[in-house]
Each structure stands twice: as structure tokens, then as C-alpha cells.
Target: Arf-GAP with coiled-coil, ANK repeat and PH domain-containing protein
Amino acid sequence: MKVTVDFEECLKDSPRFRAALEEVEGDVAELELKLDKLVKLCIAMIDTGKAFCVANKQFVNGIRDLAQYSSKDAVVETSLTKFSESLQEMINFHTILFDQTQRSIKAQLQTFVKEDLRKFKDAKKQFEKVSEEKENALVKNAQVQRNKQHEVEEATNILTATRKCFRHIALDYVLQINVLQSKRRSEILKSMLSFMYAHLAFFHQGYDLFSELGPYMKDLGAQLDRLAVDAAKEKRDMEQKHSTIQQKDFSSDDSQLEFDVDAASGIVMEGYLFKRASNAFKTWNRRWFSIQNNQLVYQKKFKDNPTVVVEDLRLCTVKQCEDVERRFCFEVVSPTKSCILQADSEKLRQAWIKAVQTSIATAYREKGDETEKLDKKSSPSTGSLDSGNESKEKLLKGESALQQVQCIPGNASCCDCGLPDPRWASINLGITLCIECSGIHRSLGVHFSKVRSLTLDTWEPELLKLMCELGNDVMNRVYEAKIEKMGIKKPQPGQRQEKEAYIKAKYVEKKFVDKDSAFSSPLALVQSQEEKGSSSFKPALEDQVRTPSRSTAVAVSSDEARRESLFCPDELDSLFSYFDTSSKLRSIKSNDSGIQQCAEDTREGLSSVVSANSLYEPEGERRDSSVCLEYKHFHPGLQLYRASYEKKLPHMAEALAHGADVNWANPDENKATPLIQAVLGGSLVTCEFLLQNGANVNQRDIKGRGPLHHATVLGHTGQVCLFLKRGANQHATDEEGKDPLSIAVEAANADIVTLLRLARMNEEMRESEGLYGQPGDETYQDIFRDFSQMASNNPEKLNRFQQDSQKF
Model:
């Protein structure tokens, strides 16, 4: 490290030292001004960039509107949609760039200015103060008279103390200067390098995006060249046709005299006719008539729905009408009414009469065609609803969240509008969404839908498994149960207003949920024979599982050694040394040892835990149920309660759709909640589903035990990890005064003891450092992340507690 101010000169307090200090202080003051200016410019740049992104987003929305407007032109619509998507990606890249700029320049340099330069200023103030005190001591020492021995001694002592203090503070000041001068280079260069890397990533992303778009743009350019040639040819043809028509004789409009019963459009003849009204005034109105689909219809404007004059031409006749004052009239008579019409000339009248007569004859020949067409359209289509299990079996480890989630039936298209390749998901509903529908879901609020990106966000393993357990097909059978009966069509991609109304009706108002047949829906009725034949439900946990009490926890010498190793093994020592809390850990251990008082046999206590745990399955296993799940007879809260134990996520989703309270407490079973039942069922995914839908992780039963207590008693390490991540209170005690840690210590579960103590130490560290609301130390997060991965992907590795217990 280069020394800017010499330490030896500091002790001498020489003019060179003072000059060097003055130069450094001026340099630091100028540096602060430059950095403040750079930070302000950075803030202005970021604000301008965000305004640019907003304007650019509006421009992209304009392109999308133009694409929707051009829906009849497939080339224009496809091109504009593809371009708008690419531009939207660039807007996202810009947003990421501005965020990284804010972190690398604004945040980092501001930290340097506020912390390091502030320390320098504080050291400078102390140095100036002690310098002044030293000068005063020197002057006072010089002025004292030699015959005043008491004053001489006092002045000498003050001068000595002041000099000592001056040297100490001066050395600290010089050290602060030298460190600052060295650190300024690294801080400035580090922030700028991070800023440049952000730009590098931005331009690489843009290059990759447009490299993929390049071939399409090249093909579109070639297509435009062909379109230009075709347009020139069409122009010449139209000019020629225009010239030909100009030379035509318009004295009589012969174009209306032609009719074609075999026209591809189905319109035999059309044109203007006067129609006599059937009212008392017998007024005449000019309308556009046409013969089509064996009917005679008319309309006033093109947008109006045609009015049918004759429903079926086979049931009518046509004849000239000479008993009216007007010329060129003819009458169409049907069994129910008569309609008098007037043409513009005699030729037109004869043409219309002949067209109607020919259409009548044709209608008789084609009788039965409509029935045949309907028969052809009535071919049934079949599909399997059981392909979900096959898709789930094809999920491979290491696949991205997008690939895994889209493998689930129905997830390859948006759940609400059907747009293919959705890139967003609602994690509490377990469905996939397109970007437009995801924005509408966000506007509903997180109490209805929690939106996350399948490509941009990091997915926790238990959340990914939750998405793979549900899917669009499952949820739509719940939330769209009545959509066909109500005759409502799902909105199409691009219909923003229709989508908003549909999604609000579907998830907020729940209009399409089949509430009349509450729990007799297909989901509720698909039950196994074992479920239908069962007649009892599992009692509460406390009635079957008893943790070792204080009077039954004696440890023999070998057991004491084993229990001792639970708290300070070599691997935990190295782990806790990171937190520098080994003394705290040992103090906790000594306190815990007081819990292990006299008992008859530790093995007996352990075996009781093992036998209790044998009543429940390890995470991820499915077993035959002895629980009565005739859901259609249940209250929604009770359905949710029992489905939570049976790991039936579709039934749980159905219960929530029917208005079940996710925190409903069963008064017949110690006020246990669905989340506690999910713990008893042993499913990590079921717990995650309830938590994502607003379950209270700290709601306790009548015996004072919350989900964390129950998971600890059962030795469900993955659930303990999940609840701690979701903010479970591990200091809560049950009616016996036991918190989860004391239960885990008595049960000798090393993994859960480790998790609880790490969470407790992390909490204490955050409180001591004032980091409220922060996630905690990176090592702490890494350990919990590893446990989450293990609980979701390799739950058998967390069965060490049961295996070790069986050895004793």
C-alpha cells in the first residue's frame, strides 16, 4: 500500500507533515465533490432511462394495438406481434441495466462517500481538536515561571499527556488517510467495472435477441419484395379494369339481373328493393335484400343483423302484383305472412321472381344436406385426464422451471386465454399465464394471485413441486366448472378488456365455480375404493404422539456421549465458527443438558418417538388411506382440513374455491388447522400450498402447539426448514412449557436441532446488528437452501433420525 503521509513526519508534526495534510484534505474535499456530482448524474441518467422505458413501453403497446387491428392480415399481425415481443424484451433488458447501474454506481459510490469519507472527516475533526489542545499546552508550558514549581509540574504533566494523545490521534488520522487513498482507487474502479459489465451484458442480450430475430427479418424483407411486385401487378390490373368499366354503358344496370344458385358465398342474388310496411300507413322503405341459405332476408345497414322475410323458401310462392298503384311490384307469400316488394325496373322484377323460383326448386333438391352436415360435425372427441402422472414421471432433475412446469397437462398454454408457451405462473393457484394475463393477475392483489416469472425468477424446490402437483387442467376443472353451462367463451389473446372482466369473474367473484353442487364435482367424486370404505379420521397428534417427558429422559454413559455429539460435532464446530458464536452454542448446550434429568431409559424414550413417527409417512410417499373423504358431504373448511392430511391438492384447491377458510380450526380435534393436518400427513408440498394461500404459520391448537411444534415432534426436517423460512416463531411454548428446540433436544434429532439453533442465532445476530427484516447471513441462507433441496429432491437423506433411533 502506497503511503501518502509519512508516519514519522506525523510524530514530528513538522511543516512538511502539515503541508501534506493540507494537500490530502484538499484532495479529499475535491474527490467528495466529484463523487457527489457523479452520483447525481447517475441518478438523473437512471430517471431519464426509466422515463424512456415508460415511453418505449407505450410505443410497444401501440404496436400491439396495431397488430390487433391488423388481425385480418396474418403477415402484418404476426410480424408486428413478433416485433413488439422483441422490443418488450429490450425494455426488460434496459430495466435490468438501470437496476445494475443503480447498484454499481449510485449505491456503491454513495456508500463510499457516506461511510469512508465520513470516517475521514471525523478523524480530521479529532486531529484538529487535539492539535489545538497541544498548542495551548505548549504555550501554557512556555509561559509558566520557573519559581512556581507547582505550576511548572502541572504544565509539564498536561503537555506530556497532550502530546501522547496527539501522537495517538495523529497516527490514527494518518492511517485513515492512507487507507482512504488506497481504497478510493478500488472503490471507483470496482463500481465502474461493474457498470461496464452491465452494459456488456445488455448489449450481448440485445445482440442475441436480434440474432434470433435476424432470419425472420430477412425472410420478411424478401416477402416484402415479392409483395411490392404483386402490388404493382394488382395496380395494373385494377387500372385496366377501371378503364374497361368506364367504357361500359351505364344506362341500364344489368349487373343486378344476374343470379347464381351455386355461388360460393351462398348468396343467390342481392340488391335494393322497396318494401311495403305492414303498418296502417303502408309506407315504403328501401332495403338491401338478398337470397341466401334458402332464405329471403333484408337489412338497412351492413352492420345490422339481417331480418328474415321468409324462413324457408320451400314453403313460399312468388308472383307479380298488379293491384297496387306502384309499378314493378311482386309479392312473396308464405304460410304466415305476405310481403310486397318493388323493383326499379321490369327487368329487375322478372329477375327477382326468377331467382326466387329457382331458389325454391334448389331448396327442394338439397333437402337433408343440413342434417348430413350436422352428423359430420357430431363426431365425438376423446381425451385422457390421466396423463398427468405420466407427465410428472417424465420430469428430470436439472430441468428448468419452465420445462418442468410446462410438462404438466394444460400448462403449455395460458390458463385463462389459451396463448401458447406461457412464461409466467401464479404460485398460489398453480397455473401458468401469458404475460398479459399475468399483469391482470397482479392487479387482483397477492391475496388472490401471486405472480412469478418461470424464466427470470429463482424457484425454490418445494414451490416447483407445488406447481407440478396442480396445473391448468386441474384448476380449470374447479374454476371453470360452469363455464359451458353458462354459455361463456374464454377470451382470446389480445382482448385486454375481455380478459380483465373474465379473470376477475373467475378468481375474485368465482362465478364459474359450481357452488350449487358444492362438492359433487368431478374432482370430489374421484375417490379410491379405500377412501369410500373408510369410516374414521385420524385423531389429533397429541393423542397419539408423546415426546419424552423430563421424568423419562435419563441417559446412560453411551447415550450421553451420543447426545453430546449432537451439539458440538466437528462439522457443526466449523459451521458455528463462522458466526463466532461457539461460546453461545456451548452455553445453550449446557442449558439444554439441564432438560435431560433423571429417567428410566433413553432408549425407551427414543423408541416411543420412533413408534409415534411410524404412524406417519416420510415426505414424498403415498400410502393407502383409512380416512373417510366423502367430500361432497363436508363443510368447505372441513374438506380442506381433511384433504390437507390426505395430500389431495386438487381437493384442497376446490375447497378454497368454495370459500374454505385456510386457517379454519376444527373444534372437534383440539382446534387443529389444515396446516397442522398437512404436517401430520407428512407432505411438504401440501404445507407450501397452504402457506402460499395465506395459512398462518404460527396458529396453534388448543394445546398450544403450532405447525413447527408438530413437525419437530414428528421429525419432519423438511417441514421444519420450510416453517422457519416462512417466519415461524420458534420461541412459542406449548401447554407443557416446551418450545420446538427443547422438543428436538429431547428427541435427539440432530438435523432439526441444527436448523433451530442456526435460525435462533441468525435472529440474534440480526437483532444485534439492527438488520430487522433482512434475510440474514449468506451462509445461513445457503444451509437452509441445501436443506430445502434435500427435503424436496432427496428426502431419504433426512431420515437419519429414524435410522439412528432404531439403533438404540
